[in-house]
Design goal:
By secondary structure, this protein is of the alpha+beta class. The chain has a single domain, classed as Heat Shock Protein 90. It contains four helices and five strands, in the order E-H-H-E-E-H-H-E-E. It is globular.
Amino acid sequence: MKELIVPADTDELDRVQDFLHEELEKVDCPMKIMFQIDLAVKEIFVNIASYAYHPEDGDAEVRCEVEENPLRVVIQFLDGGKPFDPLAKEDADTSEEATMRREGGLGILLVKKTMDDVSYTYEGGKNILTIKKNLEEKDA
């Protein structure tokens, strides 16, 4: 499993995505899937950068592993910030009336809808959010 440790700062998002692209390009990840992963990674990393340590500073660790059977990527986000399980809240209401109120939670809903598996645990003083995405496109 490859890993990258960066300051939990939105300025580091490009570095995180470049790190993941390098691994995904090795297995010819389809562009559509790469785009879905990029959206999920952006949502998760920006949330860590914005809320995990606020107002202090800290690091975020991103781990990436490509599994072969089935071909899929497993990406973990670790931070030592405040314990927070983004999966514990009920899914955001996406009805038109509710979206006008902008209560939040739409980002994690996007992650759950685009990834094949999303899980959270708190171990050793760290939040660990894991996303998994199959890398083979299904035939239409």
